[in-house]
Amino acid sequence: MTAAEVLAAYAPAAALSSTARSWDRDFAGKLLMAPMAGVSDAAYRLMARAGGAALAYSEMVSCAGLHYGEKSWELVDPDPAEPDIAVQLFGSKPELFRESVERVAARLGDRLALIDINMACPVPKVTKKGEGSALLENPALAAKIVRACCEGAPDARVTVKIRRGRYMGQEVAPEFARAMEDAGATAVAVHGRFATQMYHGEADWSAVSRVVDAVAIPVIASGDILSHNAARRVLAQTGAAAVMVARGTYGNPWVFSGHEPSTAEKISAFECHVRLLETTGAHLKRARSLAGWYFKGMPDAARWRNAAMSCVTAEEFLSVAAEVRAHVC
Predict the structure, then answer these.
(1) CA–CA separation, 236 vs 25, rounded Å?
(2) Cys bridge to 11: 16, 46, 90, 274, which one at CB 3.0-4.6 A?
C-alpha cells in the first residue's frame, strides 16, 4: 500500500482526514507540527497533517550531512502523499547553508513550503560546534547564514527558530529576532526557554510577546503547547501569528483540530501510524514509543506498552492493538 492508500483505509476510523491539504502559506492562527529529532519522519508528518496541522517540519537536517553524503537526504524528501514540507537545517557555515538551500529547493520544487534555520537546539553536541542555540551568541554570523539562505534560493521563504537566549537570565530574543528580520528572515519561531534550561521548567510565553512587539514579520510561538486549548491561549496571550506543537503531538494528532478522541479512535490511529511507518520504510521500532503514547491513560496501559516493546513487525504491533481493542472497547 502507498501512504495515500493507508490514509484512505485507516484514517476515517481514527477521526482523521484521509488526505493532507496543502499549506496556504499564511501563518495567521495556524497550528504547525514542530521539527522533532528522531520523531518527525514522513509517517509522523502525515499523521499530523491528517489531524489538521497546517504544516509539518522535517527533523533538523545537517547542512554538512547534505554536503558530504546522501543519507541525510532521507530526512528531506517528503513522501508522495505529503503535499508540502518545511525543511529545517542546522549548521554554522554560511557557504554550506547556501549550497544546501539551493539543492533542497531544486530537489523539492513547489513542495518546499519553507526553509527553517535551527538556532534553538540546546544539545551540547550541536552547540559545541557553534550550531543551534550557540548562534544566539553570534548574531553577526547568524545574519550571514540567513542572507546566504536567501541568496541560495531567492524564491524560498526563509525562517528562523530561536530561544529566549542561551543562558538563564540573559534574554536576547527581541533584538536577535530584529537582526534576523533585517537579514531577510520572513518569520521567526520563539521557544520560551533559555537553551541552558533544555526542556526543564516552564516556557515563558511573555518572551514570545516581547518578540512580537520587536518585529514586523510573523512570530511563531513554541514551548509547552501540549493541547489545543493551550495553543489557542498562547495565540491570544502573545499576539503570535502561529504556534508550533511538539510534545503535544505525542499520541495526539487531534491536537491540531481540538477533537477529543475516543479510546477506539486512539487505537485506530495507532494502527494507521504503524501502517504508515511500514509503507514509508521507517524503522518499525519507532512504533514502540508510539504504543506508549497512543495507549496512555487506557486501562492496563503499562501492559500494552510492555507488549509492544517486544514487537518487531507491523503485524505484531497490530496484534497488540487488536488485543487492546478487545479488552478496553
Answers:
(1) 21
(2) 16
Q: Is the pLDDT of residue 312 over 80?
A: yes
State how far the Cα of 114 lies from the Cα of 54, in Å rounded to an integer: 13
CB 33 within 8 Å of CB 42: no
Which residues, including other chains, have CB under 8 Å from residue 289's CB and lie 6 or more apart?
Answer: none
- E-strand stretches of 151-214: 158-165, 187-194
Please tell me whether the overall predicted TM-score, pTM, comes out greater than 0.85 for this model: yes
Cell of residue 93, nine digits: 557555515
Determine the distance from the C-alpha atom of residue 38 to the mean position of all C-alpha atoms in its chain, rounded to a whole number: 11
Question: Please, are residues 120 and 163 in contact by the beta-carbon 8 Å criterion?
Answer: yes
The reply to whether 150 belongs to the active site is: no
From the candidates 121, 149, 272, 311, which is the catalytic residue?
121
The Cα–Cα gap between 310 and 322 comes to: 16
> Pick the residue with more confidence: 36 or 69?
36
Q: How long is the chain?
A: 329
What is residue 199's predicted lDDT score, i.e. its pLDDT?
86
Q: Which of 120, 292, 318 is nearest to 221 (CA)?
A: 120
Q: Write b or e for each residue in 88-98: b if 16 or more Cβ atoms lie within 10 A of its Cβ, otherwise e.
A: bbbbbbbebbb
Q: In what order do the strands lie in the sheet with 61-62?
A: 55-56, 30-33, 242-245, 219-222, 187-194, 158-165, 112-119, 85-90, 61-62
Question: What is the Cα Rg of the chain in Å?
Answer: 19
Residue (of 121, 56, 112) closest to 91 by Cα position: 121
Q: Are 58 and 66 in contact (CB under 8 A)?
A: no
